[in-house]
Amino acid sequence: MLDLKGTALADQTAWAKINLTLQVTGRRDDGYHALSSLVVFAEHGDVLRFQESDVLNLTIDGPFAAGLSAAADNLVLRAAEGFSALAGRPLNVAVTLIKNLPVAAGIGGGSADAAAVLRGLCSLTGLSPDDPSLLDLALQLGADVPVCLAARTVVMSGIGEVLRPVVAFPALALVLVNPGVPLSTAAVFKARQPAFSRADEQLPPPDFDTLLDWLGERPNDLEEAARRLSPVVPRVLDSLAATPGCRLARMSGSGATCFAIYENHADAESAALALRGAEPGWWVTATGLRAG
Ligand SMILES: C[C@@](CO)(OP(=O)(O)O)[C@H](O)COP(=O)(O)OP(=O)(O)OC[C@H]1O[C@@H](n2ccc(N)nc2=O)[C@H](O)[C@@H]1O
Ligand SMILES: Nc1ncnc2c1ncn2[C@@H]1O[C@H](COP(=O)(O)OP(=O)(O)O)[C@@H](O)[C@H]1O
Prior knowledge:
It comes from Pelagibius litoralis. ATP binds at residues 102-112. This protein is α+β, with helices and mostly antiparallel strands. The protein is 32% helix and 27% strand. It has nine helices and 13 strands. The strands form three sheets. Strands 3, 4, 5, 6, 7, 8 and 9 form a seven-stranded mixed sheet that branches. The relative contact order is 0.17. The mean pLDDT is 95. The structure holds 4-diphosphocytidyl-2-C-methyl-D-erythritol 2-phosphate and adenosine-5'-diphosphate. The site of adenosine-5'-diphosphate has 17 residues, from helix 1 and helix 2.
């Protein structure tokens, strides 16, 4: 923990977002799509460190640092600039981003980074993370930033700004797999078939087996388009589905990261080990859900 001008600014984790379901229910005039999605957060994520500085500055480190620019369009810097405009004064910090999550991967890494910056700067300035102006800024930064700011199990709708907390939810044992092929969110939305799902406002059931039935009835409407754009997606899903104890294998968001839900953590760990051995080029992580 560091002391920034007398205020402690702790490291922030940018937890990976997982869309357990994703229904596309409509399209707005501005081209954005209305969604209904059960969103959870993994224990695993990027880490952001903050230090005192005279200028706003970003350094990127970690396994997925290569290929991600630290220029002004990075969501970390856009979030810090947006927060400074809100606060009416420059908030100069040197941010180190440890990029543990693959980029353009359907698990909201950039959105989670932006949300982690907003959370950090809230603790620096005393602004409440529930302040409506902060929620407006989050949505301007990206449709997934509000949910990443909440960082808890919710049913998300609108384009990402309507969040309904899910209070009772089972602990899940998951494996996340990314095959190393980036998929653009805009391109996947563009490639999808034009039909819409019916808007579904139901909250998920708390019991594990009933939840799996509920998830089975609500697929990811972007999966078909992602499979066409990136033929490795079906291979990832087949590989996950073939591992012992796998109860559901599905893509998250606009892909290409896929997840599988297991009976227990031992099965998830064994599956991750086997997949790493079979596909050394894939990013494979066994994880639970973020508590809280
Ligand atoms: C699809 C989802 C599901 O959680 O996740 P990812 O696959 O990105 O992780 C999100 O809605 C992505 O949110 P985010 O990545 O923040 O999207 P933005 O930067 O705001 O938008 C990128 C582009 O995606 C399309 N887009 C995004 C969100 C939405 N509700 N409708 C859309 O049509 C638009 O073409 C937009 O120009
Ligand atoms: N800090 C960041 N981390 C990841 N991607 C970022 C970041 N800042 C900007 N981006 C850009 O945002 C886009 C979406 O990345 P990301 O949030 O990882 O994926 P997704 O939207 O599929 O979940 C990428 O094209 C990337 O160049």
